[in-house]
Design brief:
α1 packs parallel to α2. This protein is of the alpha/beta class and 367 residues long. The strands form 2 sheets. It has an 8-stranded mixed β-sheet with strand order 10-11-9-8-12-13-15-14, with helices on both faces. Strands 3-2-1-4-5-6-7 form a 7-stranded parallel β-sheet. The radius of gyration is 20 Å and the shape is globular.
Length: 367
Amino acid sequence: MVNPPDAARPWPGKALFAISALGLGHAHRSLPLIRRLLAQGTRLTIISHGDALLTLRQELAGQQAVDFMSVPDYPPLQRGAGLAHYGYFFADLIGLARRVRAEQAITARQVAEMAPDIIIADGRFGFYAKGVPSFLICHQIRIILPRLLRPFQFIADIVQFFLLRRYDKVLVPDFPTRENSLAGALSHNWIARLLKPAYVGHLSSAQYRKAEKDIDLLFLAGGFLEGPRAEWEAWVARFAREHKAQRIVSIVGRMGGGRMPLQDGIQHAFVNGAARDALMNQARRIIARAGYTTIMDLIELRQDAILLATPGMTEQLYLARRYPQTDIAGAIGYAFRYADLPEVIRAWQVEDTLDGIQRAIGTRQRD
């Protein structure tokens, strides 16, 4: 087990669950915990926004014990290029601080109206309340600053420490030792040593199915920045024209109308949930521009992939560089190989993670 059991309080009858809408990764990885809560009889108010909220509505369709609320998320940090990247960065930090204050006001209203027994936030830093057990799901304990701002890294670490310490416990979807960790220095650093978070194991809603490998090449796009996504799609089209694989599918990280006809030799798919898992299970080879949640999905699906980081996204670049470098069509990629993962990770199950979260938040299952 990742963490020893804490003193158990009754399973929450009502919970406020706030989920980041920057990309779909936070929504995807929160779904197993949401389903565990619902299975134990918890009534949920879920807060998110945009495509993430739409995804959650679709995945939880038919659930009577869920209410949804749309609250705009933070500005898209790390957008832009060159000097503009740094200008946007400072402006977006100010916007983020304002949004966190707005989230605090929303939390106070929700606590007064619904009286939740527990608050859980995944990537939303303003959803906590004094007197209500509040927990944050976060793998990025340290925010890696852009290159020119690295001299100020210690200041950023201090700010992050005081931001995260407001929660009763930080739940890290990673493993407790640096040697076996998926996030490396993002989740294991001096801030984490002071916070003493609960390392609960990887968290993913993806499901492995034995399937015929009839997709030669699957391109997978994640993230929330429109400019890099357009560049990625252009690169995928060039790659497909030059390599002419028998069947190429591209999963685009935004909501849309299911599978689309062939275009430039590529079948584009705007899919989530089981449809996304099916395509990933069918792929012989995956090339992914994606972050931490996709790495956890690859583990659940027992798949290898070539990871290409989004330009300017320091987290994605750090995560990708933890794997062996490889060149692909003029781009630098990094080879994620499932078989090379430590045995403790390959043997781990998401149910183990959910049990670890339950112990960390100090609840016991209903009889």
